[in-house]
Amino acid sequence: MAHLIRHKITNKLTNAAHTVSNKSQAKVSGVFARLGFQAATDEEGLGFADCDDLDYDYRQGMQMDVLQGEEEGGHMEGEGELDGDSHYQRDGTGRRPSSLKTGGSLDEGQTKNHIMGSWLECHQCHPAVSCVSQSLHAWADSACHCDVGLVHYHSTALLCPQGMFVLGLPYAILHGGYLGLFLIIFAAVVCCYTGKILIACLYEENEDGVKVRVRDSYVDIANACCAPRFPALGGHVVNVAQIIELVMTCILYVVVSGNLMYNSFPGFPVSQKAWSVVATVALLPCAFLKNLKAVSKFSLLCTLAHFVINILVVAYCLSRAREWAWEKVKFYIDVKKFPISIGIIVFSYTSQIFLPSLEGNMQNPSEFHCMMDWTHIAACVLKGLFALVAYLTWADATKEVITDNLPSTIRAVVNIFLVSKALLSYPLPFFAAVEVLEKSLFQDGGRALFPDCYGPGGQLKSWGLGLRIGLVVFTLLMAVFVPHFALLMGLTGSLTGAGLCFLLPSLFHLKLQWRNLLWHHVFFDVAIFVIGGICAISGFIHSIEGLIEAFRGAGEMFPSIIALLTLLSVACGQSPGLQVILTNKGLQYGKHVGAGWIQDRLMNITFPDISGKVLGAIHFTLTGITITKCDFPEPSVEFYQDATGFKTSMSGLSVALAGWWQTRFGIIHDGGSFNLAIFSVDVTSVVGLGKDADGRLSVTSVSCDANVGDVDMRFYGGASPIFEPFVKYFKGRIRGEIQRHICPKLEEVIVMIEEQLQAMNVSFDVDQDVTLEFPLTGLPVVNASSMNLGLKGEFYSIKHHEEPPFKPQLFAVPEHQGYMLSVGLSEFTLNSASYGYYLAGLFQALINDSVIPPSVRLHLNTSEMGPFIPQLPKMFPDLLMNLQVYARDAPLFSFQPGAIKLDFHGAVKAFAIQPNHTQTPLFNLNVDSDFSGKVWVADGKLKASMGMNNLTVTLASSEVGPFKTDAIEKAAKLGSTIFMAKVNEILGKGADLPRMKQVVPVNTVLQMDMGFIAIFSDAQVLTDGDFH
């Protein structure tokens, strides 16, 4: 027996060394083939077979194989197997299951576990090439045993902050404060413990009391817990959790790529979602790759670069250690957002699915517990320090991806490296998910839902390719719909991370090891299960709530997509009739004017009295506080897409104040004057825009961060010489009080603005006949260079509030950064006004002989109408006539490039006035005409010209018999020519452009387009009055 064992081991070593030296590339491809990639050559297939055989022995930790007949070249045939107990021991005294053939593949559960283990190792440690190469050399050099140092390296790399997703940990501290730091430690302790108990579930005691490794993977443990009633249920649960985590990880890679690129190039007119689309286009070739050799080589360089990036971030934070805001680290939590932070922290420790393979690779499994302790300690320390120093540096301004907080000079370079790493890491979880899905849908023997997706030659068929492309597109759609890195990471950690790391290990441990557990083990398992359940449920609920809010914040998703694909509309929900676009030029001009207005009035500001206590019993009051000098730097304002609003920051504000002080201690009163200088005040505020239920614009304070560099306070008069030396000891408190009140005061101003907005009307009566409604039709749309407001812009008849028989059409006003404002007026708005006046009855008139000018020889009576209607004078001689002229339908305007058109469909009813003043109907005429014209802006006025293209007169009905209308039509055209000349004379004079009280448009340009008119203009604030 010993001879056979030695012979087998020698044989394996010889084969391994030979294969590593001569076919290392084929071995690498072979291992990747087991991860779901096709072998491209026969050599790769041979490498897969060799690696599979080596990997089986290596992962089982065995020194014994099935006895086989020896053949030439040292190879053994699969005959002569020894049947026996399928349970085997780690020390090689047991037997390998007889159902496994030499060179065969693992069962499905083992394969999936190996896929997850390999992916997790590569995902958070190092690229696949490095993993496979080191593993192959370890097998060849140590007779299929793993050096414990290598395992320590793999495990530490797996858990330490080398992965992309550690960049979200500072955001967790933002909402959790010191409790978030405690949770990083607590999660490390719990995950270390659950990792150990998970490995304990791989073993059972035999009749001799010796622990035997009877299971190989997480899936095996899950199936054992559900046996015998549901022997495969547990494995399905674990596999589903794995697939969810794999797909969510792919989505996170796309989200973080879009986020990083958007924040790297904020000046580009490209949104975060558009960057995500670009990233996905770059990832589409993943559907066609047969292996990851090229990607893995680049991934190794990106991993090394990521080490450097983490060092750069920490070094930058340390360079600003003097500015660290320790007081910003909260002792309380954000109840709504902290559960999401729990999921983020848990997600950063997800490695349990990898541990069975890792423990199986260890030469001395007894060192597994020691390895777990040290690696989790290292991960806890590094993650905690990274999250803390990053949060201390940026405090409340901490973003979801911490590199977005870096200065723009280095942010772009750092983020480009991170995007490269994300794109090159995407194929690893993508192919692992594809492999599992392909086996379930196409390759599950006779139970598969669809035919095999691979042809006889190994080529991928169309439905298999469709699955891969569909998975890439699905990750894009999720990234576009929910572009929130922290929410998705928290959801994944809560849904799968807590389950795989907290719930299932403790539950499996209780189920499989119940008879051997002490009371404190039971207590720990139950406590972890309860805590994990609470964390998972709360994190899942709050993450879903956050995602729902994100969907609502984005407006109506599917109408937006339709608009994007058709007309690239910038508005969501109901199509607007009016659009107003504020460009960055207009924003900067408004900022400049506002800053000047504030500067001019700072000296006139009087602050309210400030009262309080010092030293517990001394009451003080500061009164008459005024500004004596102010160094007011112009703030920076930018559109802020993440909050759909504005981001304002001001740096270097210094103010000198003067006032009076009074103190009271019992019956002792004192007083005098003081001077206060405040230096280097930095304020950053983010204001979000939205709309209320009635369509009014609303503003809210999203975030505010204030920092006071230094203060200097001098007191004069009274007993000030006594306490003046002690003032310096209170500088920190004075500075803190001033800093603490800046943001609340700023938020009060925002609340006042919100109250003013809520008091505004969203409609007004144009005249006694029609009213104009202009509420917002959707949320404001903000990108890096502009803000778009979509307004309803619809006229209604006051007497008959009725919707017109036509709907507003989507239109997109071109954005011209050379102008401050762009206004789009749709033909719907103008036609709704026409319809309102039509319902109000304004398109009708009564014409009689009295309205005809005396200079016109023609009179409106039956005798004068003889040349047009011969029988009329005979039937009704010498009677006056009334003509009732009215519109059969509302006149409709249509806008086309360079022209405006008007269709008018009217009618004329003629009556003869009898001597007794009764009216006798004579005939009805239909008059149809269409006009065209142009509109332009010149000399600051809106001007136009119109011309009649066609006019037709037809007889609709007649009480005097039929007659021809040609003569009437000629007369009407002649009259229209004279009428249009008068109209064009008036239109040529023009009308003043609309203006606000203190703002007038300048450099205005009008452009006519299909369905709308666009007006581009700058604005000028008048200085001859108060600015309001």
Task: Please describe what this structure looks like.
The protein folds into five domains: 1-105, no CATH class; 106-553, Sodium/glucose cotransporter; 571-607 and 761-842 and 993-1028, Bactericidal permeability-increasing protein, domain 2 (Super Roll), CATH 3.15.20; 618-759, Bactericidal permeability-increasing protein, domain 1, CATH 3.15.10; 844-934 and 948-990, Bactericidal permeability-increasing protein, domain 2 (Super Roll). Helix 2 packs across helix 5 (128-141). With 1028 residues, the chain is an alpha+beta fold. The protein is flat, with a radius of gyration of 40 Å. Residues 1-10, 12-162 and 553-573 have low confidence and may be disordered. 46% of the residues lie in helices and 21% in strands. The strands form five sheets. Strands 4, 5, 6, 7, 8, 9 and 10 form a seven-stranded antiparallel beta sheet that branches. Strands 17, 18, 19, 20, 21, 22 and 23 form a seven-stranded antiparallel beta sheet that branches. The protein has a six-stranded antiparallel beta sheet with strand order 13-14-3-16-25-24. It starts with a helix and ends in a 7-residue tail after the last strand. The protein contains 26 helices and 25 strands. It is a multi-pass membrane protein. Belongs to the BPI/LBP/Plunc superfamily. BPI/LBP family.
